[in-house]
């Protein structure tokens, strides 16, 4: 019997290499982010003079190039330091993988050559081991360490601001924090904020033209020449621009459209494949999220779906009223609904916007669905109930 993988390997494809379409891929050039990379470099250049750089925080929505810019600046700094009499390390930590202060410090120790356990020591012991690394090395040079904490809000929300307290009070250590949320500093106590004193850099969303530039560069590396219809990249870019300028979404659209072309045995990606890719991506995203949501959050989505289909303006009060109807006597409190709304907004399924009703009438939160109604309905009612 022929091995099933041999049949799959023989299949014709329009891809040369899928890696450049992955958002984690670091290209040689980052279009439209030179200003932000230069801003990072202006703070980090102090390390080349054997001085500890300022702490930096970069903000921006998902898919605005924050992580890529930080990693690009890291590579440039290491390259620039190669021929200088300095000892510089830049360590990247994704806070979805290391969610406690202990885990972060232990990982840094291990990366810097100190053998420490992943658990079992006291906090004081692991911090002492970390700080001992910064004693002058045999060449009499101080080690300067820059720690990139990506998605820092996740770490701070879960474990508090102890990691910032430790790092800001360790000589020769600088922090670059990355967050999707401007308000993440609510998790930082005043005594820690006073020692952080970070410089802030904001990454704006990409517009459609900028996204098209990114896709053209990546597609050149990823696809066989002539395999993309002229309207495909502008279409992907326009769709992603509507998703708050998310380059990840644009890349995902183009890759999925290419995979659909392969499935159909087509030598070229057509605009129709992009539209099909959008439906597939959104369906998979929404379905995966909703399957893991608690029942009460699913009921909130049912209420939102009902109100949206009736073309009603969705205020917090109206949402709760409809949610109670959907729940049929098994409802949580009005206050708890606000927690659900915040969580659904973080997942990208809904958005909220505070508007003013005019003088003396106060402000109102308006809630809107951010996913296709048919996709949401199929996810909520997979059996057509």
- The number of domains: 3
Number of helices: 16
Distance between the termini: 44 Å
How would a crystallographer describe the biggest sheet?
5 strands, parallel
Instruction: Please indicate the percent range of residues in DSSP E strands (runs of 2 or more).
Output: 5-15%
Sheet with the most strands: spatial strand order: 2-3-4-1-5
What would you say about this model in short?
This protein is an alpha/beta fold. It is built from 16 helices and seven strands.
Description:
The chain is an alpha/beta fold and 385 residues long. The protein has helices spanning 4-9, 34-44, 66-81, 101-111, 123-132, 152-159, 162-168, 190-196, 208-222, 232-242, 247-263, 271-292, 295-309, 316-327, 334-346, 373-380; strands at 56-59, 87-94, 143-150, 173-179, 199-202, 350-356, 363-369. A 5-stranded parallel sheet has the order 2-3-4-1-5, with helices on both faces. Helix 4 (101-111) runs parallel beside helix 5 (123-132) and helix 9 (208-222) packs across helix 10 (232-242). The longest helix is centred in the last third of the chain and has 22 residues, at 271-292. The two termini are 44 Å apart.
Can you give keywords for this protein?
385 residues; Arc Repressor Mutant, subunit A; Rossmann fold; 16 helices; 5-stranded parallel sheet; 49% helix; two-stranded antiparallel ribbon; single chain; Helicase, Ruva Protein, domain 3; alpha/beta; globular; 3 domains
List the helices and strands and how they pair.
Blueprint: H1 4-9, H2 34-44, E1 56-59, H3 66-81, E2 87-94, H4 101-111, H5 123-132, E3 143-150, H6 152-159, H7 162-168, E4 173-179, H8 190-196, E5 199-202, H9 208-222, H10 232-242, H11 247-263, H12 271-292, H13 295-309, H14 316-327, H15 334-346, E6 350-356, E7 363-369, H16 373-380
Parallel strand pairs: 1-4, 1-5, 2-3, 3-4
Antiparallel strand pairs: 6-7
Helix pairs in contact: 2-3, 4-5, 7-8, 9-10, 9-11, 10-11, 11-12, 12-16, 13-14, 13-16
């Amino acid at each position: 019997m022929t091995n099933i993988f041999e049949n799959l390997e023989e299949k014709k494809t329009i891809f040369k290499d899928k890696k450049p379409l992955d958002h984690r891929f670091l290209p040689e050039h980052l279009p439209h982010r030179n200003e932000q990379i230069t801003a990072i470099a202006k703070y980090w250049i102090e390390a080349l003079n054997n001085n500890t750089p300022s702490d930096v925080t970069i903000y921006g929505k998902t898919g605005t190039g924050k992580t890529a810019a930080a990693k690009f600046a890291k590579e440039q700094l290491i390259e620039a330091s190669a021929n200088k009499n300095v000892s510089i390390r830049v360590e990247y930590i994704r806070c979805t993988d290391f969610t406690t202060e202990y885990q972060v410090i232990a990982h840094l120790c291990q990366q810097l050559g100190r053998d420490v356990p992943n658990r079992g020591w006291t906090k004081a012991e692991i911090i002492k081991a970390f700080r001992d690394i910064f004693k002058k090395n045999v060449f009499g040079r101080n080690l300067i360490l820059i720690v990139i904490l990506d998605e820092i809000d996740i770490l701070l929300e879960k474990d508090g601001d102890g990691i910032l307290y430790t790092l800001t009070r360790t000589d020769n250590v600088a922090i670059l924090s990355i967050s999707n949320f401007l308000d993440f500093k609510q998790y930082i106590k005043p005594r820690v904020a006073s020692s952080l004193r970070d410089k802030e850099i904001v990454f704006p969303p990409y517009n459609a033209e900028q996204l098209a530039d990114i896709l053209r560069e990546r597609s050149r590396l990823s696809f066989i020449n002539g395999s993309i219809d002229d309207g495909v990249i502008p279409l992907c870019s326009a769709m992603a621009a509507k998703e708050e300028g998310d380059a990840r979404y644009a890349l995902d659209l183009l890759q999925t459209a290419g995979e659909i072309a392969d499935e159909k045995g087509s030598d070229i990606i057509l605009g129709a494949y992009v539209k099909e890719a959008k439906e597939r991506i959104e369906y998979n995203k929404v379905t995966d999220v909703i399957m893991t949501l608690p029942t009460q959050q699913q009921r909130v989505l049912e209420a939102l779906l009902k109100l949206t289909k009736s073309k009603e303006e969705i205020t917090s009060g109206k949402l709760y009223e409809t949610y109670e109807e959907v729940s049929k006597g098994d409802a949580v409190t009005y206050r708890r609904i606000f927690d659900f709304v915040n969580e659904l907004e973080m997942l990208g399924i809904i958005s909220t916007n505070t508007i003013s009703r005019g003088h003396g009438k106060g402000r109102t939160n308006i809630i809107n669905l951010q996913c296709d109604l048919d996709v949401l309905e199929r996810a909520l009612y997979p059996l057509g109930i």
